[in-house]
Amino acid sequence: MSGRLVRRAGTAVVVALVAGALLAPGSAVAAPGPEGRSVPKLLTDLQKLFRQTEEATERYNGTEEKLKQQRDQTNRLNARLAKARAALHDSRGAAGRLARQQYQGSSDFSPYVRLLLARDPQQALDQTHVLQRVSLERVETVDRLADGARQADDLAASARKALDDQLVLAERQKKERDDVQNKLKDVEKLLASLTAGQLAELARLEADGAADAQRKFVASGALSSARPPSEAGNRALRFAVEQIGKPYEWGAEGPGSYDCSGLTSQAWAHAGREIPRTSQEQWESLERVPLGELRPGDLVLYFPGATHVGIYLGDGMVVQAPRPGAVVKVSPVAANPVLGAVRPDPSAEGMSGYRPPVLPDGAREGSDTGYGLDAAPSS
Q1: Whole-number Cα distances in Å, 31 to 24, 36, 237, 262
Q2: Which of 114, 219, 337, 348 fits 230 for a cystine, CB–CB 3.0-4.6 Å?
Q3: How far is it, in rounded angstroms, from Cα 101 to Cα 99?
Q4: In this predicted structure, what is the pLDDT of residue 69?
Q5: What are the sequence ranges of the domains in the chain?
Q6: What pTM was computed for the model?
Q7: How much is the pLDDT for 205?
Q8: How far is CA 108 from CA 77, 102, 113, 138, in A?
């Protein structure tokens, strides 16, 4: 699926929230929503849908990455198989030539009898030596032919299996793509059922919840004092800052749009270090660091399943691609429930003379939260 559906859902969020803020200023009440649900309950439901969408997106991203690797393996095996078959063809040609030579030069006399009857025994000995070398060449050619045939058969079987695996992954990718589409349709359906006043109240509750979570997180002492990034971390962070304002799009890795892990993986790739594509793999494979030792460029992971990720900016803030309908922006680190942090270059020293990147205008505008405020930030 393209990002058009995502952008439609996100545009509905943004437009409706703005309209709600204009049409329902002052204190909004927790008016009953669809099917009698209160606005707080609607917020929980909406955030749950967004979270499920991102979980589905990360599953899709993981399968897409595996599918890319499987395509590469299939192509490599097919290339090796083509070479093996060409070599086998050459070996068969050589074997045929030797067979014809052997037939044309066949004789009922053994080399010993030919030696006794020869006018020049030395010449006969030389001929025998040549015949032995030819015989050895024949044996080697036959062995080479047999090895080539076995290799071609093995490669053909491997190539068939690789292609089967590729087709299985492609089918899984299609199902996961459909899963994302269906969840986004659920978001659109819920948004379409809300009034402008309800949407304005949702925005207020969401912002208040994020601010409260950030205050508690900072008060816990989890955040570090100022630490300079590594050279690579600085490059990754500055790349992320340069993407501020670009839209979120599920499965996107730039340059025009990103999802959460697309942003972080591309930022570190720009810094010269390849890291896994998905947030779950980033959490599992990169070295974890205590939240009290965060430095700019580190990755902050969110939710128990590590389904969301941002890049630490410093001063308790992250650069992230929050959710469908939002844009890459600067957010409080605790805008979503924090799981932990990882560092792509743990052995690198902090750089000297570090200056934080200059943020563009509007870098903090828009919704900060992702997909649920029901989990307390970890310390």
Answers
A1: 12, 9, 42, 38
A2: 348
A3: 5
A4: 79
A5: 34-192, 223-343
A6: 0.60
A7: 80
A8: 48, 12, 10, 19
On the CB side of 181, CA atoms within 13 Å amount to 9
Q: Which CATH class is domain 34-192?
A: mainly alpha
Considering only CA atoms, which of 313, 299, 316 is closest in space to residue 359?
A: 313
Give strand pairing partners of 331.
318
Which pLDDT score, from 0 to 100, does residue 56 have? 74
**Pairing of β 287-289 and β 329-332:** unpaired
Joined together, the tokens standing for residue 122 give 């030395």
Instruction: Reduce the secondary structure of the chain to three states and give it as a string.
Output: CCCHHHHHHHHHHHHHHHHHHHHCCCCCCCCCCHHHCCHHHHHHHHHHHHHHHHHHHHHHHHHHHHHHHHHHHHHHHHHHHHHHHHHHHHHHHHHHHHHHHHHHCCCCCCHHHHHHHCCCHHHHHHHHHHHHHHHHHHHHHHHHHHHHHHHHHHHHHHHHHHHHHHHHHHHHHHHHHHHHHHHHHHHHHHHHCCCHHHHHHHHHHHHHHHHHHHHHHHHCCCCCCCCCCCHHHHHHHHHHHHCCCCEECCCCECCCCECHHHHHHHHHHHCCCCCCCCHHHHHHHCEEECHHHCCCCCEEEECCCCCEEEEEEECCEEEECCCCCCECEEEECCCCCEEEEEECCCCCCCCCCCCCCCCCCCCCCCCCCCCCCCCCCCC
Backbone angles phi, psi at 225, to 5 degrees: -75, 175
- The separation between CA 52 and the C-alpha centre of its own chain, rounded to angstroms, equals 18
Residue stretches of the chain with pLDDT short of 50: 1-33, 107-110, 112-117, 370-379
Give the right CATH number for 223-343 from 3.20.190.10, 3.50.30.80, 3.90.1720.10, 3.40.920.10.
3.90.1720.10
Count CB neighbours of 195 within 10 A: 16
